[in-house]
Amino acid sequence: MLSKSKVTVSMANSVNICLEFSGGAELLFDMVKKHDVSLPGNSQPWTIKSLLVWIKENLLKERPELFVQGDTVRPGILVLINDVDWELMGELEYQLEENDRIVFISTLHGG
Amino acid sequence: MAASGPENSELVRLREEVAEKTREIERLKLILAERNSTSAQTKEATPALIESGNIRDVPTFQPADGLDKPSIARYSRQLILPELGVKGQLALGGTSVLLVGAGGLGCPAAVYLAAAGIGRLGLVDYDSVELNNLHRQVLHTEGKVGTPKALSAATAVKGLNSTVQCVPYHLQLDSTNALDIIKQYDIVVDCTDNVATRYLLNDACVLTNKPLVSGSALRFEGQLTVYNYKGGPCYRCMYPTPPPPETVTNCSDGGVLGVVPGIIGCLQALEVIKMAARQEVSYSQRLLLFDALDGTFRAIKLRPRQASCAVCGDAPTVTQLQDYEQFCGAKACDKTQSLRILQDNERISVQEYHTVLSSSAPHLLVDVRQPVELDICQLPNPINVPISQVSRPEQLQRLKTAVNCKLKQLEQDDKKLPVYVVCRQGNDSQIAVQHLKKLLSDLPVNVTDIRGGLMAWARKIDTSFPEY
Ligand SMILES: [Zn+2]
Question: What is the overall mean pLDDT for chain B?
């Protein structure tokens, strides 16, 4: 019983989410705006913070400084969690849930 | 058939009379047309241009307290909307709006604000009309190329609705004049094209307590938010730190489809009209994302005003306007700045490359622009390696193959192959030279930048070469 529940817990930490990049952020990801990704089982629940590390290691091949700065996104990128500003959702500490849609948008300045 | 004598003379007399009356009518028509056109010309007279020396010389603004017969006729289709009505129309006529930027966003915004009967419309732009503006800056016309955008836009708007008081400002909005200008308006519309002016406008609006209707567009995307309105966030609440300058793309480098800023500019006008007519606005503490390729509009809920905000927070540190070009590390315009990354001995002029080309000396030309740009124009026989892909293994392999092929053409084995790198304006090519020097260090090559790129070529070597 105990070992079974343990397995369930570790499986529960893997999540399928939808990542989107827009406003020019997609240029860093081969011009692909939408990515359906499966985050593997993890000892800790997935957060935006650990997602950023995963993106840097798995999706972002070149010039990571144009996307991340330290452990967060660079200034000028707004993170949306299910169509809500991440500031309202706990920012880096937000725990990802199954089917979440996380959008990274680069703010535009042209006119 | 022949008519008798007296009858005939009667007909002749009548014909003469008709001819004379017709001439009289023609003469009266001419006079009328002349009078009409003079009165139209007085109404459409070019509004007086405000420049840096006379920013306080704004004509007084005296809104009407009722609607006259021509106004009722003009606005009848919107007057019968219960949400607007006479009260709303008078509120529009009593509102003064400052549009900063008479470009891709400012032109459509100005058209609908003037058409709807906004009382006073200030139009700020330091720039003059260029041919490459016309695909999106739809108030300007071919005949206005070279004239100040503020004046061109104000003249066009005046022709559409002569009852709107238009105030064109041909100047760069900066820390010294922004507050004085903004104070004279009720609502500010951000139609600018650069980060520094966006922070400047935000701070000026917070300091003078004016709402800021902000729009932006690039490529196929647009964004819209109303800042500093009824306790909502300001631009700095959202973006406390400016973006690194190298991450900012302007329309001349990134491109933009004209209708995209057109749509965002129209939505900015809509928010202003609702605000002026005392209706609820839609995008305070909300962000509209428009994706023209997907055809989608998405509205995002934003954070509230931040207590920690440097300008609108509880303990603001920004209490007067700053140096925004310094704050952002970028100029307050959307012109691409010339970078100077390389040493002089790592660069050659377009004249020197012209000599290389005419002497058919063995060399390799690497064009680091996007493939779509090579379709517009190119020099003979380039190998295309886009700047964004220089470090990719497959691109490097292509490049090395090309280098080895050219090396065989060299007469002496000990000589180095010149590799010249070119782009549009000579910035990306310098970055590429830095990368390629490292990436090709195992080959006998000499990597050099062509200073000023293809635009320098078009200006100095071949004037028939397209500029874009
Ligand atoms: Zn603020």
Answer: 93
CA angle (B135, B137, B140) in 5-degree steps? 100
Q: What angle do CA B221, B339, B174 make, to 5 degrees?
A: 65
CB contacts of B218 in chain A (<8 Å) are: 23-24, 108-110
H or E stretch including A4? helix A2-12
Known catalytic membership, residue B328? no
Rounded distance between C-alpha atoms, residue A27 and residue A22, angstroms? 9
Q: Residue A95 has what DSSP assignment?
A: B
What chain A holds in terms of domains, given with CATH numbers, is: 4-106 (3.10.20.30)
Question: What distance in Å separates the CA atoms of residue B135 and residue B110, rounded to the nearest whole number?
Answer: 17
Give the residue numbers in A contacting B (CB under 8 Å), as ranges: 22-24, 27, 62, 65-66, 74-78, 80, 83-85, 87-88, 105-111
Tell me if B346 sits within 8 A of B426, measured CB to CB. Answer: no
Surface-to-core class of residue B466, CB atoms within 10 Å of its CB (0-12 exposed, 13-18 middle, 19+ buried) = exposed
Which among A75, A85, A108 is the nearest to B242, CB-wise? Answer: A75
Query: Cβ(B406)–Cβ(B446) under 8 Å?
Result: no
For residue B40, the model assigns a pLDDT of: 54
Q: What average pLDDT does this structure show over B158-186?
A: 96
In chain A, what residues touch B334 (CB-CB under 8 Å)? 110
* A22 neighbourhood in chain B, CB within 8 Å: 221, 289, 291
Q: Is A47 helix (H, G, I), strand (E, B) or coil?
A: strand
ipTM of the shown complex: 0.89
pLDDT, one tens digit per residue, over B129-162 is 999 999 999 999 999 999 999 999 999 999 999 9
CB B389 within 8 A of CB B397: no
Q: What pLDDT sits at residue B25?
A: 87
